[in-house]
Amino acid sequence: MGVTAGSVLRVIPAQAADMAHRMVQAEKAATPDRAYKPKFFSQHQYKTLQALCEAIIPADGKAGGAIEAGAPEFIDLLTSENADYQLRLGGGMMWLDATCTGRYGKTYLECDVEQKKQILDLIAYRKNGRADPSLNQGIGFFSFLRNLTADGYFTSEIGIKDLGYVGNSYLRDFPGCPPLPQT
After folding, report:
1. Cβ-contact 57, 153 below 8 angstroms
2. What is the three-state SS of the chain?
3. What pLDDT digit, counting tens, does each position of 40-99 carry?
4. How far apart are CA 147 and CA 9, in angstroms?
5. How far apart are CA 53 and CA 150, in angstroms?
6. Max Cα separation, the chain?
7. How far apart are CA 38 and CA 19, in angstroms?
8. Can you give the pTM of this predicted structure?
9. Which candidate, 51, 106, 115, 132, has a CA 20 to 30 Å from the CA of 15?
């Protein structure tokens, strides 16, 4: 698995992403059940992280999603080594659960599908923070988590395949860009 300099990385360097994926894979290979044990997040927070990563990049018919790509493990490993990430993500998850409890009487994980969609729709757009400043912490958290999830996904083997990246290969002729699909 290689990571390219032209990656979609927004949060961490490509070499660090590659190293994080390798560390997670090595840890999983060393355990009999090939399970990952969270390093920073509590079990509840880790399950919340998995649910959020799945909402951000769900599996589809052609490729696995963030869960299959190992994005939650990637994020947990990076967070365990970075105090700023711990504050931003740990605090963001506490904000999310507290906000869901205030609105719906239950934590994010306990919410039904429609309630999860409602809260994520509120924190997915910065314009909502202008209308309701109490959402700003959640908006910042979700924006940061989206970037980390994208980094974790698109630097994984699954994400690289999903992009159709073939590596630094020589082209005898360049036929130009493919036409845009008609919708």
Report:
1. yes
2. CCCCCCCCCCCCCHHHHHHHHHHHHHHHHHCCCCCCCCCCCCHHHHHHHHHHHHHHCCCCCCCCCHHHHCHHHHHHHHHHCCHHHHHHHHHHHHHHHHHHHHHHCCCCCCCCHHHHHHHHHHHCCCHHHHHCHHHHHHHHHHHHHHHHHHHHHHCCHHHHHHHCCCCCCCCCCCCCCCCCCCC
3. 999 999 999 999 999 999 999 888 999 999 999 999 999 998 999 999 999 999 999 999
4. 8
5. 9
6. 62
7. 17
8. 0.81
9. 51
Q: Which two tokens stand for residue 16?
A: 């660090």
| CA-derived radius of gyration, the chain | 18
The label of the residue with tokens 């630094």 reads 168
**Token code pair at residue 112:** 């039904």
C-alpha 106/C-alpha 122 separation (Å) is: 17
Q: Quick one: tokens of 148?
A: 């980390």
CA angle 75, 103, 107 (to 5 degrees): 40
Kindly give, in sequence order, each residue whose CB lies less than 8 Å from that of residue 120, ignoring residues fewer than 6 positions away. 55, 142
Residue with tokens 């999903």: 162
